[in-house]
Design brief:
26 helices; five-stranded parallel β-sheet; three-stranded antiparallel β-sheet; alpha/beta; 636 residues
């Protein structure tokens, strides 16, 4: 019988153990089959009673559950929560390092920060005139506190109001804190089941100051007797936060990427940093492990291939560890995850889709602004959203395909936008590429456009959000369907939708709305969210590599090589339309994603998650934390 850790690894990879290194005849079907198997294994770990849940907690966490665990369980049970202990793993990953910090220090740091929420005697407040995001989180917590029998302990919850990660603590510091945070399970008769009050904390700590030492996008350099400011590469803060032997920690920083005049070496151009064959950590070129696929510590080339790495919109980062909560983070950043306000607001609209699968267009839809960072004339080719739109623009693909046979190695398969290139060896065995029909095929199913090019403020904007330096490569949709008020047409009229990281992850909350609309969600991300442990790749959504090199193979598997204009004479239209798509498999994913989201990503599930998070956080910030716990089930 596999351990729960093995089950979790299997779920997130979509693979069983020994088969991982063997490429099956059809990698996608293999990944889907194993995702279903590991999902069934996960469901078998559900607990059915308070006593069973407490026992599972002790076995997995090495501690007694926190005070108030019984009230939390009854609240969760009343709300119909699927009780799988692994669904709360992110909480313990996020809070783990704080066990290595003195409780009083954690309390003082949290209390001294202005951008925070405070809970006192069940009342949730934030500073007047604060950021709208803080107020929205406050409303969510107060909605929880208003339920009968919910008793939230006193805590201060500092929040990151920026979209980008704000805490990148060096790996060695985190490792030291974790080494000091060994779990301890006291005898039941020595356990205290009551949190300390923070009623007098405001007066006691009125003069306490804590400076996170926020680091911005500019860095002082000494040049002889003078000092000057230059760019601070975001990657220079990412790298120390990665494990010592990880690829990102070992690889050099591409300093030329941040040259103020755009002087970049040929080997560090956007196109040169893209994979020249099947990406690593994949099965036949397709994502086999979602944890690895989203971990920037595994992909040093992302420093020049993702907007958040190249030029964050709001670079304000601390390397000091303290309690800081946020709605998303990168794999190596140290925030404590909360459901985002947009998650909270979207979930209330969960309901049955308005159109059946047969009524939806057999197309991949994406609309969005050119965000993910601050794009400029010198860096836009490095932005992931620009690359995705280029790859699904028929004119760009047509030129890139013509370049596959070019004699000049620097232009082989290169698109006019110079931000993507086709794999010259057709490693994905695309039928459409074999017959030089990739461009018309893409044109048949891709409906992808920017809604705003987000031109750099130093350049003039064209009409409808255009841009001087990218306007020649991209058109701008006059209006995004999903921006229409009270209208979800974009989510329900297409069979396939793409979810790409914006600023700070799924900033438009596309994932929840697309899952609820029963579409096949193609998802690429460098960010973690509170719900990641609840969704199974290749069962509830289709994972993509962050370079998007696998998108053509994914779409050919599902929609087939069908196009009325594909390479006339190479295949008859009838041959192209027969048997090479997998529409039934696509429908299965759309239905599984919708049905599961409506069970585990509801407003109620967010409240259950936050409730447990607050209980665990309050214990860590309590001077008596070693002795705090819930043991009523053991005392009889």
């Amino acid at each position: 019988m596999p351990s729960l850790t093995d089950v979790r690894k299997g779920i997130l990879s979509g693979l069983g153990g020994s088969e991982e290194d063997r490429v099956p005849k059809n990698a996608i079907e293999h990944l889907m089959t194993n995702a279903e198997k590991t999902f069934r294994m996960l469901l078998k770990t559900q607990t059915q009673s308070l006593e069973e849940s407490a026992a599972r907690y002790r076995k997995k966490r090495g501690r007694h559950p926190p005070p108030g665990f019984d009230a939390w369980y009854h609240f969760a049970s009343e709300k119909g929560t699927v009780m799988v202990e692994e669904f709360w793993d992110q909480i313990y990953h996020d809070l783990g390092p704080l066990w290595g910090v003195e409780a009083h220090k954690t309390r003082q740091q949290a209390h001294s920060l202005r951008t925070k929420m405070s809970i006192r005697n069940g009342v949730v407040k934030c500073a007047e005139g604060g950021h709208v995001r803080t107020q929205q989180w406050t409303d969510m917590l107060q909605a929880l506190a208003n339920y009968a029998h919910v008793q939230l302990p006193d805590v201060d919850i500092p929040v990151n109001i920026n979209d980008e990660p704000a805490m990148l603590v060096p790996w060695e510091d985190v490792d030291t804190a974790l080494s000091m945070a060994r779990p301890l399970m006291l005898p039941p008769e020595e356990v205290v089941n009551e949190y300390s009050s923070l009623e007098h904390l405001d007066a006691q700590n009125a003069t306490h100051m804590f400076d996170p030492e926020w680091l911005g996008a500019r860095l002082m350099h000494s040049l002889g007797s003078t000092r000057t400011q230059g760019p601070r590469p975001f990657w220079s803060l990412v790298q120390p936060a990665c494990p010592p032997h990880s690829p990102t920690r070992l690889a050099p920083i591409f300093d030329d990427i941040w040259h103020k005049d755009g002087h970049v070496s040929a080997e560090h151009s956007a196109a040169s940093l893209l994979p020249s064959n099947l990406p690593k950590n994949t099965l036949g070129g397709y994502v086999k492990n979602w944890i690895i696929a989203t971990d920037v510590c595994e992909y040093p080339n992302l420093q020049g291939l993702h907007g958040a790495s190249v030029f964050p919109n709001s670079m304000s980062v601390t390397t000091k560890p303290f309690p800081l909560f946020g709605s998303s983070k990168m794999s190596m950043s140290n925030e404590i995850l909360l459901p985002s306000p947009l998650d909270w607001n979207t979930s209330q609209y969960f309901g049955p889709p308005t159109l059946s699968w047969e009524q939806k267009q057999n197309k991949l839809y994406w609309r969005g602004p050119a965000i993910g960072g601050h794009n400029t004339e010198n860096n836009w080719r490095r932005f992931h959203r620009h690359r995705f739109v280029s790859m699904l623009h028929a004119t760009q693909v047509e030129v890139a395909e013509a370049q596959l046979h070019a004699s000049n190695e620097s232009t082989v398969g290169l698109a006019p936008s110079e931000n993507f290139r086709l794999l010259p060896g057709n490693e994905y065995n695309l039928t459409t590429q074999l017959v030089a029909g990739l461009a018309p095929w893409v044109n048949g199913w891709a409906d992808v456009e920017f809604t705003d090019l987000k031109c750099d403020r130093d350049w003039g904007r064209g009409k409808h959000g255009g841009c001087d330096y990218t306007g020649g490569y991209y058109s701008v949709a006059a209006e995004s369907v999903d921006e229409k008020k009270n209208d979800t047409e974009a989510e329900v009229t297409y069979r396939y939708t793409a979810v790409l990281d914006g600023d700070g992850g799924d900033s438009d909350n596309e994932l929840l709305s697309h899952l609820n609309a029963a579409t096949v969600v193609l998802r690429a991300s460098v960010y973690k969210q509170w719900y990641d442990a609840r969704l199974i790749p290749w069962l509830h959504f289709v994972p993509m590599d962050n370079t998007f090199v696998d998108v053509y193979g994914i779409m050919e598997y599902f929609v087939g090589a069908t196009s009325s204009s594909t390479a006339a004479g190479a295949f008859s239209r009838l041959e192209m339309e027969q048997g090479n798509g997998h529409d039934g498999k696509a429908e299965e994913i759309s239905r599984a994603g919708m049905e599961w989201a409506q069970k585990v990503l509801r407003k109620e599930d967010m409240l259950v998650y936050v409730y447990r998070l607050v209980l665990e956080y309050a214990r860590i910030a309590d001077d008596r934390r070693i002795g705090l716990g819930w043991v009523d089930d053991l005392l009889g």
